[in-house]
Amino acid sequence: MAAGEGDLKLLGLLVSPFVVRVRMALSMKGVSYEYIEQDIFNKGELLVRYNPVHKKVPVLIHNGKPVCESLAILEYIDDIWGASVLPADPYERAIARFWANYIDDKMFPSWIGLLKAETEEEKAEKVNQTLAVLMHLEDAFTQCSNGKAFFGGDSVGYLDLALGSNLFWFEALRELFGVAFIDEGRTPLLASWAERFGEAASVKEMVPSVDKALEHAKKFRAFFAAAAAAAK
Amino acid sequence: MAAGEGDLKLLGLLVSPFVVRVRMALSMKGVSYEYIEQDIFNKGELLVRYNPVHKKVPVLIHNGKPVCESLAILEYIDDIWGASVLPADPYERAIARFWANYIDDKMFPSWIGLLKAETEEEKAEKVNQTLAVLMHLEDAFTQCSNGKAFFGGDSVGYLDLALGSNLFWFEALRELFGVAFIDEGRTPLLASWAERFGEAASVKEMVPSVDKALEHAKKFRAFFAAAAAAAK
User: Fold this and answer.
1) Which of A111, A143, B159, B193 shows the smallest number of beta carbons within 10 Å?
2) Is residue B160 part of a domain?
3) pLDDT 10s digits, A97-133
4) What was the ipTM of the complex prediction?
5) For chain A, how many structural domains are there in total?
6) Domain that holds residue B61
């Protein structure tokens, strides 16, 4: 059996950026798989069995063996199905990995923190944090794109997926909080990149609707408010 | 010029596990470089210039171009100087990346939290957290080693470096807090692995002394106590 053959399943949540980036990568490579939506507010047996350490989506299950953590999954997909989304050059690859980790370690906690914020003061702090990390990512675009259309150069690459999978959430956050996080005035390079990314045929069918994000945000905020109240 | 040639510098801190793992990898491959110790309590111009986003060590500067984040540096070293420390098999590589991230995202914050803890209650909590993550790493050893001597199989690999670079700190923590974190009773596989790792000729000269760790711990705790007092 060739490396890419056999049974492939993905445990996911349709509105998770971490899941969206994996689905985009699989779609770009024309890999078919069984998608199994998970209830993250009431974690089921499959998720606990295949990701016992973190119990988080996404989990890619290839011939019964789980791969967890979305960035590790993107590397695995590159290794197994080829047509790498990571840059070929080792230095560019190192830089792409650096910024992808930055997105997950700094950018994601900032904007998700906005949904968890209880007071106006906390909200303002998270808005400012998110805007500050996006300014760094504006610089990252200059560093990585070499003047081309995408972080990955002429076509969508690893870092485009890492950041682009969050874009529909910024739309939802604009509706919820009235802040345009990616904005022509403040982050002009990211703003025009975001338009190109949204139109890229290879990924656009995997972008969830803003309504789905808003619906999830409502559940998510209720869940966190209940947890915060219980902790008091 | 071949990929591995040219000028190589490492900005580091001798007692940082993140720096130690990079030095071990370079030593294993026989790569020579200029080592430049940094003062992390009073960050200098070099660190700010070469890692403006995080201002953290290690930074590997190859022909004037910086690579930051220790796990990304290990991948870069593999790519440039060969003799990979990462497993050759894509699935094993995905699992190694998963656990290395676990070490940095869960294990490191637990034990460093112990040094920052102000109350006995906080200390007890961090001790328990650290013991819990080490139980997961005991399972990881079974999963990764396939019954061999190291996480990487017959010789020291990526995950051995990721975890092994923290071992001298566990010795220091035992002296400071009286807890044997890696212990024959609780984590027998890790305990015997730690002995083998400590004796591995390829890495042992890069392990700082426990006294150096204790000396740093003293400065670190004073620094954090002052910062906590200032924030009150």
Assistant:
1) A143
2) yes
3) 999 999 999 999 999 999 999 999 999 999 999 999 9
4) 0.94
5) 2
6) 8-81
Angstroms from B211 CA to nearest CA on chain A: 32
- The reply to whether A95 and A192 lie within a common domain is yes
Cβ-proximal residues to A179 (8 Å cutoff; 6+ apart), any chain: A127, A131, A173
Compute the distance between CA of residue B156 and CA of residue B18 in angstroms, rounded to an integer.
Answer: 16
Residue B175 CB neighbours (<10 A): 12
Q: Dihedral sign, CA of A89, A90, A91, A95? A: positive
Q: Contacts of residue A98 in chain B, CB cutoff 8 Å?
A: 67-69, 72
- Please tell me whether residues B116 and B151 are part of one structural domain: yes
Q: Are residues B145 and B170 in the same domain?
A: yes
Give pLDDT, residue A48.
Answer: 96
Tell if the CB–CB gap between B91 and A76 is shorter than 8 Å: yes
Q: Which site among B56, B70, B101, B137 would you substitute to test the A interface, given the most A Cβ atoms closer than 10 Å to its Cβ?
A: B101
**CATH number, domain with residue A44:** 3.40.30.10
Query: Which pLDDT score is estimated for A1?
Result: 57
Domain shared by B41 and B60, yes or no: yes
Bridge partners for A153 per DSSP: A150
Select from A8, A53, A93, A142 the residue whose CB has the most chain B CBs within 10 Å, as the one to mutate to test that interface: A53
User: Per the CB < 8 Å rule, is A53 touching B102?
Assistant: yes
> Do residue A104 and residue A206 come from a single domain?
yes
Least confident of A19-23, A178-182, A199-203, B228-232: B228-232
